[in-house]
Every structure is written in structure tokens, then in C-alpha cells.
């Protein structure tokens, strides 16, 4: 019996801990307790199996591993982005965005559904928290969509799916954790996920557009009385054109002498601040230059868009790290809330309390995962997982499909933090051995987890929406009638088309990895001829080379006394009058192989790179054998 346990301790440990998690035991304590319990077992049966490499002194390594968690600067981005999202959510930014964008698209069939998708993307790029997005849009949009006779399933599915965009649109917490566990840059993970995230938003909108064609009664346009801001299209187009012109002028002329990144930042700042200030003056002074719609769109949309650029733009441009971007985002959220007079002591304390709880939750899970990993690796569990995955048929494709199915199923029961801290470190070495780009692998897992958030019956987004959706008939004063409740069946059925879109997106990512791997910069290829021309154009360089006019007598390494090295050879030049024995000007062949006046031609008339004779080849030069 002991032999059986010793030789199969890795799968026994893995199955036991995963079973305890699925039963519902606290994650951090289950991981830590499982790691310590099986550590004791491993030490006691270690003499039986050569695959077990555990000993009592090794247990002391847990302390260093815990301190490594605390020293991880990347994880600082989690509380920053969480705090930013909570402040924005409590300042009712979602309410303002949904109202404004809903009226902007209100004249279209399905306008409210389009607005929910676009606002979901904006909230994802500012809050990064699924629960906050789903709950906010469920409380605000769902009653309005039901008031104007939207199909219950479509309304519920659109809200739930749009809320899960926070899983994958930067600055997603999922991507931060994935990058940390994969040992890759968070900035690269953000850049790699950007295009796929925009594609999934477009696919959601395309699905709603198809519904407007085949089921127009499901997605009616808003009646005129529901759009008090009117249309205002011409003035809105005018303000957009002015903003674009301001950016081009700033980039091409005003800030043309600055670096590329700085030019983009200052030009974008001017293109947003000037229209925003103009819209505020237009409202305060009743100037009448802008329509009510254009005025509202500028005042409501520009602050969150500016915050998104402040966070993501600076990260993408390489100006700020994700941690610094998160700190700027949190500061920007506070400034926005103060400007709208929606930040009080209670709101601030609630946001700080929730942020502290989430950060502590993440830290404890990560500490538990480190204790688990020390034991699991000590009993060769990583080799067991690697051999198991590499034995799958289909090679790379078979591995990706199998991992997608496993993560998809686990995502229905476990939070993404738990999956990232347990599964990803075990799967990453296998992916790397198969030649899979780890940024692409992380984005693929992120989309997989997003799909699992929607999957009945255990999808987290479904529970969030169910908690705020009406469960009894209610009287709507605006519509003047009773409205039926949203059933759980409607929520489940409404998400099914979006789950199919997610699965299709996974297939697209597997088929076209370049959508993610574009984050890699092209390798710099140096042209030797171009280098020669550059060197010759400046007539040499420094450190006593011809054309520099600089000599360093006595400098270390240049033949002086201080270096304690013999003088460098004169390469056969008469007199050896350069610094440290380098040839004097005029002793080197000119470009093109023609001898300089008083100099010696290189063998065959061809100069070495840079126009200098190769050591040991010019007449009289010593050999370096």
C-alpha cells in the first residue's frame, strides 16, 4: 500500500486538493493545508520512491517563498486597479454612460443593446471588475430594456456577456495575474490582448445587428419621448472633427520636436481638453454652439476615455509600467469623482475596505499556492503533469484543446485567481516545451475563463445578474404598466449565443496566433555596409581613433601605465603616433580601398570593415595567433 502511495503521490495530491476545492473548502487554507499534509507524507515515504525529493530542512523554504510574494511589485497593480474600478462604480459613472450612449444610439433598432456592449467595454477598460460591470448594468439597463419591450433573454444575455468583457479587456486583473504566473511582462500581455478584445466586442455588436434584421421586434428603437437630448448629429460630428484636427496639429507642428511617445500624449491631451472645456462653457454660459446631445456626449464620455488613455496609453507607449499606470488610474478616478462631487467619506472608506479585502484574498491564495507548489514539485508533480500533457494526441493543437476544456470546466466552479495560481504554473512549462508563445497562451486562457463566466448553470456572471434582476412582476411608472420578471431560464438561454461567440473566438485565436503575437517587435537587422558608411561619415570616433582628436595616455586598457598592459601594436604604421600606439592619421587606407596619403593599402585593395586594415594583414603588422 505504501509503495502504491509513494509512486502515485503526485496524482493523489492533485486530485485530493482539487476535490476539496470543488466541495467548497476555503481556497487559501485548502492549498496550504494540502501542501503541508502531503509534505509530511512525502518525507515519510521518500525512501520508497526516487521521484520524491522532500526533506525536513526543505520546509524552511516556505518562508522565503512567502516573502517573495510580498516583494512582487507586479501584484501592486491589483489593488490599484481594483480601487480605481470601485471608485468609478460608486461615483455612478456607469449610469451616466448608459444614459448618454443609450440616447446616442436610441434612434437605431437595438440601440440600447449596442449601448450596453459599448458601455460594457468602457467599464471593462476602467473598472476591470466583472461583478461591478454586470451588477451596474443590470441595475440600470435591464429595467429600461424591459420597459421598451426588449426580449428578456436577449437583454439578460447582452448584459451578462458585456459585463464579462472586464475579464479580457486591459487593464483586466486576469491578465495581470496571468502575466505574473507565466513570468511575462504585463505590458506585453495587455498589448497582445488588445486586438482580440476589440474583435470580441465587434462580434457581440455583429450578433445584435443580425438580430435587428431577423427579429426586429426583439430590439425596438427608443420612442422620441425617451430621447430628451434629441439627435444633434451635425454638432457632434463637428466636435469630433475639431478634436481630430487638434490632434493632427499638435502632433505635426506644436509638439513636433518631442519624442514620439510624448508627442502622442500631449497631442491627445490637447485634443480632449479643449473640446471638453468648450462643452463646459457652452453649458454654463448657454452659448448654444453645441446641441444638447453633443454637449452631453463630450462631457460624459471624455473623462473616462481620458482615464483609459492615461492608464492604457501610457502602458502601451512604454511611458509607465502597469503598476504605475494603476496608480495614475486610481488618482484619476479620485479626481473624476471629486469633480462630479460624488466622493464622500463613506464612499472612500467602502472602496478602501473592498480593495483591502480583495488584495488580502489574492495574497492568501497566492501564499497557499506557493506552499502547495513546493510540495507538488518536490514529489515530481510537475513532471507528472508534463508527461501527461505531452502524451496527448495532436501535439500542440491537442494540448490547447485539452487545456481549454479543463480550464473551461474548472472556471464554472473556481474563481480565476484559483485557476491562475494552481493550474497555470503547471501548464506553462508544457506550453513552453511545445513551442507555444506564453503571452498567446495567457490570452487564450483569459478568453476561456471569460466563456466559463457565462456558462450555465455555474457561471459567475449569471449569478451576479440574477442577484439584481427582478424576480416578481413590477409596475413601471414611465411605461404605466406591469412588467414581467426576468426568469433564470431567460438568463441562461440568452447567454447561449454569446457562449458560441466565445467558442468561435477561441478557435480564431488558435488558428491566427498573430492576433496576439504582434506584441513582439521585429528583430533589428544591421547592415554592415550602412555601419561602414556611418563610421566613415564621422571620420572615426573617440578614444584616440583617427578623426577624433582625442588621446588617452595612461588610460587603463589603452597602453598606458595605469592599465598595467603593454602598448597596443602600431599596425605597422611608421612612428606609431596614435594614442597607445594606434596609427596616426593618414596611416589608414581611405574608404574604397584607396591608400590614404602616406598610408598603406590593405591586401587586395579591400579595407576591413569601417575602412580599417585587419590586424595582422597590413604590411609590417604583427600576427595575433
Tell me what the structure shows.
- With 625 residues, the chain is mostly helical.
- 63% of the residues lie in helices and 1% in strands.
- The protein has a domain at 73-231 and 291-520.
- It has helices spanning 2-7, 9-23, 27-45, 61-70, 77-90, 93-104, 111-126, 130-147, 152-163, 173-182, 186-214, 233-254, 260-285, 292-316, 322-339, 345-378, 381-390, 395-411, 416-433, 438-452, 460-468, 488-511, 514-517, 528-537; strands spanning 474-476, 481-483.
- A two-stranded antiparallel ribbon has the order 1-2.
- Helix 7 (111-126) runs antiparallel to helix 8 (130-147), helix 10 packs across helix 20 (438-452) and helix 12 runs antiparallel to helix 13.
- The relative contact order is 0.11.
- Residues 540-625 have low confidence and may be disordered.
- One of its GO terms (molecular function) is transmembrane transporter activity.
Judging from the principal axes of the Cα atoms, what is the shape?
globular
Helix and strand composition category: mainly alpha
> Percent range for helical residues?
55-70%
* Major β-sheet annotation: 2 strands, antiparallel
Strand order of the largest sheet: 1-2
Backbone CA Rg: 32 Å
Uncertain stretches: 540-625
What is the residue-averaged pLDDT? Answer: 80
Strand composition percent: under 5%
Amino acid at each position: 500500500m505504501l509503495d502504491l502511495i509513494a509512486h502515485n503521490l503526485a496524482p493523489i495530491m492533485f486530485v485530493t486538493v482539487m476535490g476539496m476545492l470543488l466541495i467548497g473548502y476555503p481556497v487559501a487554507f485548502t492549498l496550504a493545508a494540502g501542501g503541508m499534509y502531503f509534505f509530511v507524507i512525502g518525507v515519510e515515504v521518500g525512501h520508497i520512491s526516487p521521484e520524491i525529493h522532500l526533506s525536513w530542512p526543505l520546509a524552511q523554504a516556505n518562508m522565503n517563498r512567502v516573502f517573495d510574494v510580498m516583494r512582487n511589485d507586479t501584484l501592486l497593480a491589483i489593488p490599484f486597479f481594483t480601487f480605481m474600478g470601485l471608485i468609478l462604480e460608486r461615483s455612478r459613472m456607469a449610469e451616466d454612460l448608459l444614459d448618454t450612449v443609450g440616447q446616442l444610439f436610441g434612434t437605431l433598432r437595438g440601440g440600447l443593446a449596442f449601448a450596453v456592449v459599448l458601455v460594457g467595454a468602457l467599464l471593462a477598460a476602467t473598472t476591470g471588475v466583472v461583478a461591478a460591470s454586470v451588477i451596474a448594468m443590470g441595475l440600470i439597463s435591464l429595467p429600461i430594456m424591459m420597459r421598451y419591450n426588449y426580449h428578456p433573454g436577449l437583454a439578460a444575455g447582452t448584459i451578462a456577456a458585456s459585463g464579462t468583457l472586464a475579464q479580457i479587456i486591459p487593464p483586466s486583473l486576469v491578465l495581470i495575474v496571468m502575466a505574473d504566473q507565466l513570468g511575462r511582462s504585463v505590458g506585453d500581455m495587455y498589448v497582445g490582448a488588445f486586438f482580440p478584445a476589440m474583435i470580441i466586442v465587434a462580434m457581440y455588436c455583429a450578433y445584435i445587428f443580425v438580430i435587428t434584421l431577423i427579429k426586429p421586434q426583439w430590439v425596438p428603437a427608443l420612442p422620441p419621448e425617451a430621447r430628451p437630448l434629441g439627435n444633434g448629429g451635425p454638432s457632434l460630428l463637428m466636435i469630433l472633427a475639431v478634436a481630430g484636427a487638434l490632434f493632427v496639429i499638435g502632433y505635426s507642428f506644436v509638439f513636433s520636436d518631442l519624442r514620439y511617445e510624448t508627442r502622442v500624449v500631449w497631442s491627445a491631451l490637447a485634443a480632449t481638453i479643449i473640446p471638453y472645456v468648450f462643452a463646459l462653457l457652452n453649458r454654463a454660459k448657454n452659448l448654444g454652439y453645441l446641441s444638447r446631445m453633443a454637449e452631453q456626449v463630450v462631457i460624459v464620455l471624455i473623462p473616462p476615455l481620458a482615464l483609459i488613455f492615461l492608464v492604457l496609453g501610457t502602458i502601451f507607449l512604454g511611458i509607465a509600467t502597469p503598476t504605475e499606470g494603476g496608480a495614475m488610474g486610481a488618482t484619476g478616478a479620485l479626481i473624476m469623482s471629486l469633480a462630479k462631487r460624488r466622493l464622500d467619506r463613506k464612499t472612500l472608506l467602502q472602496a478602501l475596505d473592498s480593495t483591502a479585502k480583495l488584495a488580502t484574498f489574492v495574497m492568501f491564495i497566492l501564499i497557499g499556492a506557493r506552499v502547495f507548489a513546493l510540495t507538488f514539485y518536490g514529489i515530481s508533480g510537475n513532471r507528472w503533469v508534463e508527461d501527461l500533457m505531452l502524451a496527448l494526441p495532436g501535439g500542440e493543437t491537442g494540448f490547447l484543446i485539452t487545456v481549454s476544456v479543463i480550464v473551461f470546466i474548472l472556471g464554472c466552479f473556481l474563481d480565476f485567481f484559483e485557476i491562475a495560481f494552481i493550474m497555470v504554473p503547471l501548464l506553462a512549462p508544457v506550453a513552453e516545451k511545445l513551442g507555444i508563445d506564453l503571452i498567446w497562451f495567457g490570452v487564450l486562457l483569459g478568453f476561456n475563463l471569460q466563456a466559463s463566466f457565462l456558462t450555465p448553470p455555474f457561471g459567475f456572471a449569471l449569478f451576479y445578474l440574477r442577484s439584481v434582476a427582478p424576480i416578481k412582476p413590477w409596475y413601471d411608472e414611465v411605461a404605466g404598466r406591469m412588467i414581467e420578471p426576468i426568469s433564470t431560464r431567460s438568463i441562461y438561454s440568452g447567454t447561449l449565443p454569446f457562449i458560441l461567440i466565445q467558442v468561435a473566438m477561441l478557435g480564431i485565436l488558435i488558428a491566427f496566433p498573430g492576433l496576439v503575437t504582434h506584441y513582439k517587435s521585429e528583430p533589428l537587422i544591421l547592415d554592415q555596409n550602412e555601419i561602414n558608411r556611418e563610421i566613415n561619415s564621422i571620420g572615426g570616433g573617440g578614444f584616440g581613433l583617427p578623426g577624433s582628436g582625442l588621446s588617452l595616455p595612461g588610460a587603463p586598457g589603452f597602453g598606458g601605465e595605469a592599465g598595467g598592459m603593454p602598448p597596443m601594436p602600431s599596425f605597422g604604421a611608421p612612428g606609431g603616433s596614435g594614442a597607445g600606439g594606434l596609427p596616426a592619421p593618414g596611416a589608414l587606407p581611405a574608404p574604397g580601398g584607396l591608400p590614404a596619403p602616406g598610408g598603406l593599402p590593405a591586401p587586395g585593395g579591400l579595407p576591413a570593415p569601417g575602412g580599417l586594415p585587419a590586424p595582422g594583414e597590413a604590411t609590417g603588422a604583427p600576427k595575433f595567433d
